[in-house]
């Protein structure tokens, strides 16, 4: 979630009620009522039939308390999820984005120039060698007399990200044979496929939706429309290098750099949504990249020798967490101190970082990982 939501204070509707407090209250109420009715003092012990019955009731009461707490929290953006979130979003006029199909441009090439027009029916399927992911032509196309080929937009038959990332030239199998077609090939990497919008992405858009109430201009307004255009956005950075010029830099989730086709699709959506000022010149692109390497040596306290293997695994995971953290926000400076913090938190006694060094990446750039070298230096005295 965006930091504005994460920083909201935690709330509760049951004021710290626990199973133990309910048990104690039931036992206390029983003993008090028994004395009131009979004049005799009773002290219930664990394991007595009445105590066991009250404890069983306490479990049911606790479940009711938890459901009450959940019901209250579902009215707040920080906690709501699933169908509850969909209903909250509907109040703001926002709908969860469904999964989208990946696409690419495929060139159909003849074996030789023909004296008649060659038709490419809509729905003609192509795929990669040995793959179960199929693409089909999105429209009817023709190869005119005298031409060798035609380029056709092809859309994946399966929704979601499964169709993304197929390199140019890998789609070369014509599933539905066509006369005189010698070869097919995708001209660019497949892109555009998205899974159904997850809760975190939808929460971000609901939080930003007030920016939708006026013509785009504020930074948050452009963030909202960018995330509406493509649900797999990880981060957006909006700047205006000069008057009436809006530069939007985007990355996918986990710092993935988006293809030029996806950036163009987002740009076209914003320009065609009738939400931007007439004078704004908008461009959408991936951020520039600043490469960095990780070269680190760490040591473990001798007193932790029995946990050395566990700590080594934890440090490896910490380095992975660092590289993920470093690339998930546009403009985030390369910060070796964060690497030390995570490794120390994983149990390392001392961390020697050779690379990276602190680097200012700039507001329109993103760090991109090069090589990783993590060396265990051995045990050291505490």
Give the SSE map.
Blueprint: H1 3-6, H2 19-38, H3 49-73, H4 82-91, E1 101-110, E2 118-120, E3 125-128, E4 134-137, E5 141-143, E6 149-159, E7 171-174, E8 181-186, H5 199-208, H6 219-229, E9 233-242, E10 245-252, H7 260-272, E11 281-285, E12 288-301, H8 308-327, H9 336-345, E13 350-355, E14 365-380
Parallel strand pairs: 10-11, 12-14
Antiparallel strand pairs: 1-6, 1-8, 2-5, 3-4, 3-7, 4-6, 9-10, 12-13
Helix pairs in contact: 2-3, 5-6, 6-7, 8-9
Q: Spell the H/E element sequence.
A: HHHHEEEEEEEEHHEEHEEHHEE
Number of domains: 4
- Unreliable spans are none
User: Order of strands across the biggest sheet?
Assistant: 7-3-4-6-1-8
Instruction: Give the rounded overall mean pLDDT.
Output: 91
Radius of gyration (Å): 30 Å
- The beta-strand count equals 14
Overall shape: it is extended
Largest sheet composition: 6 strands, antiparallel
Distance between termini?
39 Å
Considering DSSP H and I runs of 4 or more, what fraction of the residues is helical? Answer: 25-40%
What is the SS-derived class? alpha+beta
Content of β-strand: 25-35%
Q: With helices defined by DSSP (H or I, 4 residues minimum), what is the helix count?
A: 9
Structural summary, described in words:
The chain is α+β, with helices and mostly antiparallel strands. It folds into 4 domains: 3-79, no CATH class; 101-186, no CATH class; 199-286, GMP Synthetase, Chain A, domain 3 (2-Layer Sandwich); 289-380, no CATH class. It is built from 9 helices and 14 strands. The chain has helices at 3-6, 19-38, 49-73, 82-91, 199-208, 219-229, 260-272, 308-327, 336-345; strands at 101-110, 118-120, 125-128, 134-137, 141-143, 149-159, 171-174, 181-186, 233-242, 245-252, 281-285, 288-301, 350-355, 365-380. The strands form 4 sheets. A 6-stranded antiparallel β-sheet has the order 7-3-4-6-1-8, with no helix packed on it. It has a 3-stranded mixed β-sheet with strand order 9-10-11. A 3-stranded mixed β-sheet has the order 13-12-14. The longest helix has 25 residues, at 49-73. It is extended and about 110 Å long. The chain starts with a helix and ends with a strand. The mean pLDDT is 91.
